[in-house]
């Protein structure tokens, strides 16, 4: 591609980018229904063709790099707005929803005001049964006359209250103490405890304390094993900063019951050994 052809293609790409920007703006405003993907693919093909040919002219190279940077910025903006449109959080959609909500609220208020202020309109063409209206009104008057008056009921209530107040009060009766009941006696004979066999109790042996039954090393011996282990690691040029006494002692004490079950009646001890260039702790069974 000659520099002249490159310049013509570059100018065409700039026009395509400007047109694509206007199409996206129309899509954001709701004028276009779908995203302009076909013009965007055409622009991508043109830019891909221009990337293959790098001209020696500095001005053309500068124009091409500026076009690429502008297209990259617009791509980021289009991607962000497209995601907001899909999620329903775009400013245009929010404003439209707010305007619709306000219009619906104003319409409801207008309808409510019309119903409350407008007089009753009668249709002159509608047939009205006057006899039926008169009969309903007379029935309503009869119901009102048949209901008792509140004054007579209040007088009767006052009379009943005065008669209740004038009635003599009954004499107070002496209070009777509450009845108490004793605990029922059981009819079953008491159980007799069997006499304890002193000879059997004497034959039983008191279990040894926990310290006597322990087959593993004590705390002093465990500390010596740990110090020897750390010293051997230092001599072997191994790391000792992550070694903890509690962790080592716990792991060794966990091995003691298994070794005790395997070697019954024997004392368990540990020693530090170096095997295959690594420092370790090996259990030792003593008689």
What key phrases describe this protein's structure?
287 residues; mainly alpha; two-stranded antiparallel ribbon; flat
Task: Provide structural commentary.
The chain has 287 residues and is mainly α. Among the domains are: 3-92; 213-286, no CATH class. It has helices at 3-29, 37-52, 58-87, 91-117, 130-146, 150-166, 198-203, 210-213, 219-235, 245-262; strands at residues 267-275, 278-286. A two-stranded antiparallel ribbon has the order 1-2. Strand 1 (267-275) and strand 2 form a beta hairpin. Helix 1 runs antiparallel to helix 2 (37-52) and helix 1 packs parallel to helix 3. The longest helix is centred in the first third of the chain and has 30 residues, at 58-87. The protein is flat.
Topology, please?
Blueprint: H1 3-29, H2 37-52, H3 58-87, H4 91-117, H5 130-146, H6 150-166, H7 198-203, H8 210-213, H9 219-235, H10 245-262, E1 267-275, E2 278-286
Antiparallel strand pairs: 1-2
Helix pairs in contact: 1-2, 1-3
């Amino acid at each position: 591609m000659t520099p002249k052809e490159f310049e013509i293609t570059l100018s065409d790409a700039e026009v395509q980018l400007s047109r694509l920007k206007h199409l996206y703006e129309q899509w954001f405003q709701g004028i276009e229904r779908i995203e302009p993907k076909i013009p965007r693919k055409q622009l991508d093909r043109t830019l891909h063709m221009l990337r293959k040919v790098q001209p020696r002219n500095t001005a053309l190279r500068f124009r091409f790099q500026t076009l690429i940077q502008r297209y990259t910025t617009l791509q980021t903006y289009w991607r962000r707005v497209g995601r907001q449109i899909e999620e329903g959080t775009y400013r245009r959609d929010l404003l439209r929803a707010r305007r619709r909500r306000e219009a619906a609220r104003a319409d409801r208020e207008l309808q409510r005001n019309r119903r409350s202020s407008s007089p009753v309109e009668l249709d002159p063409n509608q047939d009205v049964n006057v006899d039926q209206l008169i009969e309903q009104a007379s029935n309503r008057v009869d119901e009102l006359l048949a209901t008792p008056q509140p004054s007579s009921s209040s007088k009767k209530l006052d009379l009943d209250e005065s008669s209740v107040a004038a009635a003599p009060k009954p004499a107070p009766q002496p209070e009777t103490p509450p009845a108490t009941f004793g605990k029922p006696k059981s009819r079953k004979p008491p159980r007799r405890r069997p006499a304890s066999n002193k000879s059997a109790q004497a034959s039983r042996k008191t279990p040894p304390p926990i310290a006597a039954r322990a087959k593993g090393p004590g705390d002093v011996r465990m500390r010596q094993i740990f110090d020897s282990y750390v010293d051997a690691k230092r001599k072997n040029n191994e790391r000792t900063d992550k070694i903890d006494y509690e962790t080592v002692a716990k792991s060794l004490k966990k091995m003691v019951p298994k070794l005790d079950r395997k070697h019954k009646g024997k004392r368990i001890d540990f020693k530090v050994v170096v095997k295959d260039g690594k420092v370790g702790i090996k259990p030792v069974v003593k008689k």
